[in-house]
Design a protein that fits this description.
This protein is an all-alpha fold. It has a domain at 32-70. It is built from 3 helices and no strands. The longest helix is centred in the middle third of the chain and has 19 residues, at 32-50. The protein is globular and about 40 Å long.
Length: 70
């Protein structure tokens, strides 16, 4: 079991807006289904890069818990 904790602090520094813009641009012209597939592929790629299943599962659970609370 992982002893690492999910870090939700802002860590993108001055590139945060660039990342947001790239994400929005990646969805440009896609159907809702294609956008959902893009998001799933991105999440899986980043989860694999992170390489810590416990942290990924915690992030999924916390993200799901936040749906409908915005």
């Amino acid at each position: 079991m992982s002893e690492a904790k999910l870090d939700t602090s802002f860590r993108l520094g001055t590139r945060g807006d660039d990342v947001y813009a790239a994400l929005i641009a990646a969805h440009d012209g896609l159907s809702a289904d294609e956008s959902a597939r893009l998001n799933a592929r991105l999440v899986l790629m980043l989860a694999n890069h992170l390489g810590d299943a416990a942290i990924v599962i915690e992030a999924i659970e916390r993200a799901r818990a936040g749906i409908g609370k915005l």
